[in-house]
Every structure is written in structure tokens, then in C-alpha cells.
Design a protein that fits this description.
InterPro entries: DUF5947. By secondary structure, the chain is an alpha+beta fold. The protein has a domain at 79-211. 27% of the residues lie in helices and 22% in strands. It has helices at residues 57-60, 88-93, 129-138, 167-180, 188-211, and strands spanning 42-46, 52-55, 71-73, 79-80, 100-106, 111-118, 121-125, 150-155, 161-166. The strands form two sheets. The chain has a six-stranded antiparallel beta sheet, with helices on one face. A three-stranded antiparallel beta sheet has the order 2-1-3. A hairpin with a 4-residue loop joins strand 5 and strand 6. Helix 4 (167-180) runs antiparallel to helix 5 (188-211). The longest helix is centred in the C-terminal third of the chain and has 24 residues, at 188-211. It is globular and about 50 Å long. The protein starts with 41 loop residues before the first strand and ends with a helix. 30% of the residues are buried.
């Protein structure tokens, strides 16, 4: 999988179609060393370009959270935040036009950025710094977000739910919406895909709590 998040450190305006790198046998391979990957494998983010790369365990463990390195490893943990305090007024202050969005600190841009899914891909919302700071002040857990690789993922389509999620999962959600959206309202399929996505996140969060 190879996703272009931005170029020349400019805001992300579109999501490329997800591309699986496979060998002649049809196996997905590590984009650093070429070894065959399992279905559940790690991802790295290339700091200069924002690309997400598939990586084997050996290559992935060579990188951590050093922002000066060429690559950073995307964590796999998912944390459900049932006690997150986000009022309707604070949400309105963020100026997100729909009930789905994710927020993360971009090292190249030296600021927190916000994106929401659309049928054309991810769209950046101009994030008022004061609005974000007030949310962090009320929710210190958000200070633990790893820059570039972890995001606050917000789902307020029905009942509000909040996660600290890997950045690759956020872009997977965007890809699902782009792939399955039909017509003006999206169609039943896309809403089923969104529901299944968040069901999977909740399951991963519970599994992570059991392993802790």
C-alpha cells in the first residue's frame, strides 16, 4: 500500500488510490527489502513525502518515533476514549462540516492538522488553534498522540465515539468511503462499510486492553 498524504509539505487535498505492491506470485511485499508480507503487517510513514509504506517486521523495527529519521513506524494500538470531553460547541468551533474527522500533529508543518473524508478523498479543514487547544486542555490524554503516526479519530455520525488510532487506519476509512460512495447520499453500502470499520476498531481496542 502506498498512499500519498502530501507533497512539498503542502496540505493534503486528495488521497491516491491504494496500490498493493506484489511480486510475480501475487504476494504483497515489503517496500524496503522486498520480502513477502503477511496479511497483518506494519506500515512506515516517510517523513519527507508523507507516504505510507508496507514493511516487514525486520524493517519496521528498525524505526521508532524519532522525527529526524527518514521513516517512522506507525503503531498498531487502538485506544477507545469513552470519557473524552468534547462539547457540541467545541465541535462547531472546529468547523468540520460532517461528523467524521481525524486530527494529528504534522512534524513537517509544525502544527495540528484536521481532515475529514469525502467522496473525492480527504479534505483538510482549516483548524483554529484555539479550538484544538481547548479540547486538549480538557482531555490531557491527547497530549500522548505520537506526531505524524497517531490521530484523534472522531465519529459523531450517530452516537459520538472517539479513538486514538494509527494514521493508516484513518486513511483506510477515507479509502473505504471514496471506494464505496454512490450518488448524493452515498448509498447503503458505504454506511455499512463505515459501521463495520468502527466495529473493527472497537474490537481491536478491547483486545488491546485485554493484552495490557
Amino acid at each position: 500500500m502506498n498512499v500519498v498524504l502530501s507533497s512539498n509539505n503542502e496540505p493534503l487535498v486528495a488521497l491516491r488510490r491504494l496500490i498493493e505492491r506484489r511480486d510475480a506470485r501475487g504476494d504483497e511485499t515489503c517496500e524496503l527489502c522486498g520480502s513477502v508480507l503477511t496479511a497483518q503487517h506494519s506500515h512506515l510513514i516517510e517523513m519527507a513525502t508523507g507516504r505510507l509504506l508496507c514493511a516487514c517486521d525486520v524493517c519496521a523495527t528498525s524505526f521508532g518515533n524519532d522525527g529526524k529519521a527518514r521513516y517512522r513506524r506507525v503503531p498498531q494500538r487502538v485506544r477507545f476514549l469513552p470519557d473524552l470531553d468534547l462539547t457540541d460547541e467545541q465541535w462547531d468551533d472546529l468547523m468540520i462540516p460532517i461528523g467524521l474527522a481525524f486530527f494529528f500533529r504534522s512534524t513537517p508543518q509544525n502544527r495540528v492538522v484536521a481532515f475529514y473524508p469525502s467522496p473525492a478523498g480527504p479534505t483538510e479543514s482549516l483548524l483554529p488553534l484555539e479550538a484544538w487547544d481547548s479540547i486538549v486542555a480538557a482531555n490531557p490524554v491527547l497530549r500522548s498522540l505520537e506526531p505524524d503516526v497517531e490521530a484523534l479519530l472522531v465519529n459523531r455520525l450517530r452516537e459520538a465515539e472517539y479513538y486514538i488510532a494509527p494514521i493508516d487506519e484513518c486513511y483506510r476509512l477515507v479509502g473505504l468511503i471514496r471506494l464505496h460512495w454512490r450518488g448524493l447520499g452515498g448509498g447503503a453500502r458505504v454506511w455499512d462499510e463505515i459501521a463495520a470499520f468502527f466495529d473493527g476498531l472497537r474490537k481491536r481496542s478491547r483486545e488491546g486492553e485485554a493484552d495490557a
